[in-house]
Amino acid sequence: EGRLSFKYSDPVRGFDRSKVKGLVARLINVKQPQNATALEVVAGGKLYQVVVDEAITGKAILNRGKLERRVTIIPLDKITSRRITSASCSQAASIAEKMGSTSFPAIELVGFDEEVRSAIEYVFGSTLVVDGVDAANKICDATKTRTVTLEGDVYDPSGTISGGSKNNLGSTLAKLSELTVAISDLNEKQIQLKKIVSEFNKLRSISKEFGDLSDKLELAQAELSAVEKHLSQTSYGMLADKYSSMKNELEEAKLELNSMDKEKKNTMG
């Protein structure tokens, strides 16, 4: 991982690692891939600086964190953020539009958590990203603001201009953005998988309950059949059968008597 790797030992026992927010490069995501080169130039070496909650945390990390390389710490409670005035932003956008170009504050082109805003403003807040060298040059002169083109050329209010070979410039943020998207997708898939597993377990539980009830019903039916068979072989069962038979004969006799009575009345009539 090289410069993107930041390892440290806890400076004190029980140290709260949430105090160390991480490298600037890992705290942002590039909203549009075509801006990766410009944003990497805007940030420069600050991309690899480490954001912490307080200056005291930074001092502890530097003194007792057993760091493997030199690092620059950005403490959120001390850092002074940089911002371009709204007037300059509007003027830059107007010039860019007239030249068929675009101009945006660099900070608007990256996503980040509000918790680290002051650090991100310190890194990206004072530069405009402009599409095209002519527009970038003119906007820099007019607004006295540092501008960077999509290709990575820099126009500074002091008068300096820098550019040239990219040497994979922009690849770091581009790859990190791809990684961020991939991790986000993975997390989403894991959440979906957990829901599916939960539903499956519920269905399996219901299926088991149904199976248990089905087994109990079969057992109860078998026991009932056995009881009925046993009962039919007892004296009570035999008497019950005889009573049922006599009851049926009585019903038949009543029906026959009614039939004969009706036939008698019809004959006499």
Question: How does this model look, in words?
Answer:
With 269 residues, the protein is α+β, with helices and mostly antiparallel strands. 56% of the residues lie in helices and 11% in strands. The chain has 8 helices and 10 strands. Strands 5-7-8-9-10 form a 5-stranded mixed sheet, sandwiched between helices. A 3-stranded mixed sheet has the order 1-3-4. Strand 7, helix 6 (133-143) and strand 8 (146-149) form a beta-alpha-beta unit. Helix 2 (36-43) packs across helix 7 (171-232) and helix 4 (86-98) runs antiparallel to helix 6. The protein is elongated and about 135 Å long.
Strand and helix map with partners:
Blueprint: E1 20-23, H1 24-27, E2 29-30, H2 36-43, E3 50-52, H3 55-64, E4 73-75, H4 86-98, E5 103-105, E6 110-111, H5 117-124, E7 127-130, H6 133-143, E8 146-149, E9 154-155, E10 161-162, H7 171-232, H8 235-268
Parallel strand pairs: 3-4, 7-8
Antiparallel strand pairs: 1-3, 2-6, 5-7, 8-9, 9-10
**Spatial order of the strands forming the largest sheet:** 5-7-8-9-10
* Strands, total number: 10
The biggest beta sheet reads: 5 strands, mixed
Strand content: 5-15%
Low-confidence stretches: none
Rounded to an integer in angstroms, the radius of gyration calculated over CA atoms is 43 Å
Order of helices and strands: EHEHEHEHEEHEHEEEHH
Provide the residue-averaged pLDDT: 87
Helical fraction equals 55-70%
The rough form would be described as elongated
Distance between the termini: 119 Å
Class from helix and strand fractions: alpha+beta
